[in-house]
# Entry
Amino acid sequence: MLAFSGQVMAMGLGELQTSSSLGEVLQADISLLRTPSEKIESSCFRLVRPEGDLPWLKQGSFSVKGNKVILTGARPLAEPILQVGIQVTCGHDLLRTYTLMPSPPVVRAVRQTPSEGKSRTSGNGRVARAGETPASVAAEFYPDSRSDQRRFARALVTANRHLGLRSSWGTWQKLPEGAELVIPDLPPAPPPLRIRDTVLTPPPRKQTPAPAVAPLPSLTLPAPEPAGDRLVLSGGEDDVRLDAALRMDGELAVVPTDGEVVSEDLL
# Structure
């Protein structure tokens, strides 16, 4: 376990020491800097949130034994990096932040004999060998199916969280040598996607209506002139009287028969 402080105090709290590993409840000793006559109760210590975005210890209890403060966590360590912020009240107003890097879980190695074979199982468990990963164990159990290997490796990580395995680290993380693994059942495969057989038909073409044609305007022909010769001279009222006289002469004209002579007075 590595622990270093982000803040140095002249007095108050010293360095933090712990042997807790991932998957274990935190047990830490903090040296207490004080005069022999000074008394400090455990109620003067409390956990606070440090600055930054790293995970931090939210729950724990304190006890004072001599010149040491004992810090006990409330749950097993699950983060590879953890900040611990401790504030001292009771008139001291001290604050110190520690950064912990828990070690991987330490598991006692189990000696194997040749008769036990390359894979030793105990109950529903299996002893991990050096250098093994969840993915390699899954390949041994299901060598012919890559999909089964992926599902089994993820389930193996979930079932062995007590060994410090984390789902966010993937199935490549190394298993502690000699650790007895909990072998889970293979999760069922997800149902296959059903694709309906459909015949794609092109969308109907839009019928574009023909543009409307405006009807042609009707032509009105002038009425035909009445038969007969007509002489029209432009000259005002005199022309009208002359035209009327010519019409009257035409109506009164008499065609002479044989032997008749038209009098010149009539012309």
Observations:
- Residues 227 and 247 are 12 Å apart (CA to CA).
- The longest helix spans residues 237-252.
- The two ends are 154 Å apart (CA to CA).
